[in-house]
Amino acid sequence: MAFEGLSEKLSAAFKKLRGKGRLTESDIKEAMREVRMALLEADVSYKVVRDFVKTVSERAVGQDVLESLTPAQMVIKIVNEELTALMGGENAKINISSKSPSVVMLVGLQGAGKTTNGAKVAALMRRQNGKRPLLVACDVYRPAAIKQLQTVGAQLDIPVFEMGQSDPVEIAKAGIEHAKRHGNDMVFLDTAGRLHIDEELMDELKAIKAATDPAEILLVLDAMTGQDAVNAASAFDEALDITGVMLTKIDGDARGGAALSVRAVTGKPIKFVGTGEKLDNIEPFHPDRMASRILGMGDVMTLIEKAQQNFDEKKAAELAEKLKKNRFTLSDYYDQLIQLKSMGDFSEIAGMIPGMNAKALQGAQIDEKALAHTEAIILSMTQKERDNPSILNNSRKKRIAAGSGTQVVDINRLLKQYELMQKMTKQMSKGKLSGLFGGGGGRGRGRGRGFFGF
Predict the structure, then answer these.
(1) List of domains in the chain
(2) Residue 316 to residues 2, 308, 394, 439: CA-CA distances in angstroms?
(3) Which residues contact 348 (CB under 8 A, 6 or more apart)?
(4) pLDDT tens digits for 54-91?
């Protein structure tokens, strides 16, 4: 889980501060020592750590903090602001050219996830900005690179242009001409990577850049390589003058050093982060939201956006109306589980909720087998039974069990989970997030295993 170690260490340092009524300079000095160690252990560049701690310390020993009634909160606020500034301050959007098509050149070392994540960004641009992207296969060296791009393109329903193993510069130029003829307003050039930075690689990339005049040169970095990713960023930036960075595998990087160092070292913004293996696991990078996650303060905005992307507005409106009339049925229950499932790893969702212990839910997933059983049970009911589960007597349950290949005990468990979810959604409808966390099928005290793997 991203930043797990850093979050724990920072939380421990701030917990000590919270236990004190007023802070002295020595209290802050001790806390900053722990912050420094936490950042260094997270593989953040030494120079970045030194400058960061110096800035925070200077602000934290000011009169406003030392004389504040809640000095610990003031220190955390300062750390939050400086972390946000360190990572770029605000969300940096992808550059779009004034003339169509706008060209995005994807560069990076082999193994960073350039091909897949470049396609994810293309799909994101189509989904959020209404763009019509084209993927161009300019990697003619790596075995099966073209096939991989075609496969991902097919899965995302994005067209792919390729010319086999010919000259990458000519392929890039021909791809742009193809886009002009076919109405594609964005072109993503999937260039070749190497296992290490070499002169030949850079010369080829410089030639492609000169031939295509890209609006965006997006460097794709594997966050799990930590300081090596930052070193690679410096080399690519020096050769190509990159315009932005995409960090992949950030969900698997417990340290977070690359995310905290790359902007400070290169001066170039992180624009996207890959948060998992699924083809929709890509997010625009928001420094303020990431700082909040690191400090255990949640990320409500991303959570709401994630919910909006995955939840059907029409169904949500219908559900809200049903909740008002206390008409939440088993069919609605099943719909909510399916939509919750589409939001991904439950621990990732939990990490966005302020005060939620995401580590306790790490790896929690919806149990596909249990979900299949639930679907079979609900579909074996009559419409009348789904609308009014209270009529389910023993003989009806036996019939449903026989029809769904389950047992009466499974039906009783489902009904218990349904009751829990009814209570949950009633409470949430009083706020404005009805249905957002509708999957209350987890294991309660004294209840059997539900849909989540915990």
Answers:
(1) 4-86 (1.20.120.140), 102-292 (3.40.50.300), 304-430 (1.10.260.30)
(2) 31, 10, 33, 14
(3) 1, 251, 275, 276, 358
(4) 998 888 776 666 565 577 777 888 888 888 898 888 88
